[in-house]
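Following up on my earlier message about zinc ion. Here are the inputs again, as you asked, copied directly from the submission form:
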Amino acid sequence: MKAVCWQGTKKVEVENVPDPKILNPRDAIVKITSTAICGSDLHLYDGFNPTMKPGDILGHEFMGEIVELGSGVKSGNARNNGQPLAVGDRVVVPFTISCGSCFFCNRNLWSLCDNSNPNAWMAEAALGHSPSGLFGYSHLTGGYAGGQAQYARVPFADVGLFKVPSELTDEQVLFLTDIFPTGYMGAENCDIQPGDTVAIWGCGPVGQFAIRSAFLLGAERVIAIDLVPERLQMAKEGGAEVLNIEEVEVGEALKEMTGGMGPDSVMDAVGMEAHGFGLEGFYDKVKQAARLETDRPNVLRQAILACRKGGTVSVPGVYTGFVDKIPMGAFMNKGLTMKTGQTHIHRYLRPLTERIQKGEIDPSFLITHKLPIDQAPHAYEIFKHKQDNCIKVVLKPNEAA
Ligand SMILES: NC(=O)c1ccc[n+]([C@@H]2O[C@H](COP(=O)([O-])OP(=O)(O)OC[C@H]3O[C@@H](n4cnc5c(N)ncnc54)[C@H](O)[C@@H]3O)[C@@H](O)[C@H]2O)c1
Ligand SMILES: [Zn+2]
Ligand SMILES: [Zn+2]
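Thanks, got it. Here's what our run produced:
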């Protein structure tokens, strides 16, 4: 089959690789109809994860049709209304791999599953404890082959695979695999109260879903922050007021817009590769290059300083290691709360599908590019450099180029 393989920093190639096989009784093989490139893939593309190996298959946002089921995939689960899976079912695949029966899965904390990362020792050395396994996301989270490919093996298929209603298109449900729940959980973590103002840094795919989710959860105002005009425009179309970091001093602007109070909650939907300015931006670039810090927390700093007293800092943006000059004094003295994590996708599959069915949101608004898998190297380039107004690319691995 064809697959998008990581071959080194800023180098992906489409290669012919062996088809996946059932390895464990609870596996399924999915023939992939649609798969997307995520901002998280860019952290791998940019070489920030030392546990990638040349040849690793990328991709964690994918859906398709079940073509084979292991002998142990029998019982149904609540997310599928108890119906067991069958060959031919059309399914989306959560990017987090979860066993369904450990301490964490039982507490609805799916991205913290204790049984799905065979390389837990690596994560324990780096993070203290291991999160769940993830598709296509380095050896630190299990070394699983990803879904930017024609087929994928899905472990714990009985727990993860979610059957989608036939009336919804791939484009409407594909983002249930990651970025819609991620934006939604980011908004839930803001603890939104009626009348609240939420400030969201980053108008990439996650930010776009965060904006719309904040409104769904009752925010009165959303202020969205970025520097890419077409992304700010899309944020506006979602109902947000927007700030361009190249045009205003964000902290000052937010104070002004909120009568001096600051936003009730703030969200970092940018993460470890934030664009920095001036001396601070230079400082982080140098420290990161010298490996004295792994991540550039420009947005996290701004968000903490901007948040109103007693407010909440929600961090869906990905961080991998260590950051410097976090204003802990502001965080402590203003009595802030921080909430973060890889998204507990399984939790959101059914409720968000219902919101799509009711017409409260149509996630397909986000897609700017649909391309055959052979064009994946080009797709990574335009997504990374925001060329050709690229906001989200969907690849169609089993359609002719
Ligand atoms: N928690 C999770 O489970 C989860 C899941 C998916 C993605 N993510 C993470 O969410 C983040 C966003 O993902 P995405 O797909 O939207 O990525 P993206 O790279 O397309 O979007 C990031 C956006 O941030 C903007 N930006 C950069 N520096 C900025 C700054 N200083 N101030 C304001 N905006 C700035 C960029 O212009 C871009 O539009 C990434 O870190 C990604 O890894 C987390
Ligand atoms: Zn993703
Ligand atoms: Zn588990």
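One observation from looking it over: The chain has two domains: 2-178+343-396, 180-340. Hope that helps, and feel free to reply on this thread.
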